[in-house]
Structure formats: C-alpha cells, structure tokens
Amino acid sequence: MGTSLDDGQQSFGTRSSRPASGSVPDICKTGQLATSSFNEMSRLSRSWVARRTNEIGVRMALGATRSQILSLILRQSAGLLAVGLAAGATLTIAAAQTVKSLLFSLHPNDAGTLALAILLLAIVTQAASYLAARGAARLEPTAALREE
Question: What is the pLDDT of residue 8?
C-alpha cells in the first residue's frame, strides 16, 4: 500500500486500501453529470418534439391516442439512444487503448464502469424523452395544426 501524505491522500501511482469509487465527491460529480445530461437531453427532446408538432397533430387528428404518441416518441428516442450508446462505447474503448500508458494503476477497459455509464445515460435520456413525449401527447390536435 502507499504511504499517506499529510492531507490524507495517497501518493501518486500507489494504490489505496479503500475503494476509489463511492466517495462523496465522486457521487456529487456523478450527480452533476447526470443533472447536466438530463438538462441537455431534455432540451434536445423538447426541440425535437416541437419541430414535429404538426406531424403529431395530424396523427392525433387521424385517431392516434395519447399512449400511441407517447410510445412513438419513446421508441424513436430509444433507437437513437441505442445507436449513440453503441458508437460511444466503441469510441470509449478505442480511446482507452490509446491512453492506456497514461493510466496508472487503472484498467482502461473497466466493464463495470462502462456499463454503469451506459445505464446512467440510458435512464437520463429516456426520462428526458418521456417528459417531452408526455408534453406532446397532451397537445390538442387543432392547436397543433394551427401552429404552422
């Protein structure tokens, strides 16, 4: 194990006996990242739904139910999410291999961390898409058709 410094941190390049994850600063950073991701995904989802207001109005005027509109938007966002997560995971693994020499006492292909990041992004994206879809499902068809 490493020798402790005066402020309680481990010396550079040594391993601590306590787990690296789960500390309060790490949890706060993860929360900030999740909040930031949610805000951005919410903004993108709302703008995507706003551009499709006329289409949603036509679908509702032709008899689509609110649950069908909701599931349509959630399915489409899930498809985009799957493509983005696949591309992101591939690029993450490739980038980790290129910086492998810079990572001291860390494994660049930590499957648990990658899986947790994918899960967190999937939850955040679907929650943001759900809020946008719920707003779209509440549209009145006549108001949506008049908008354009």
Answer: 46
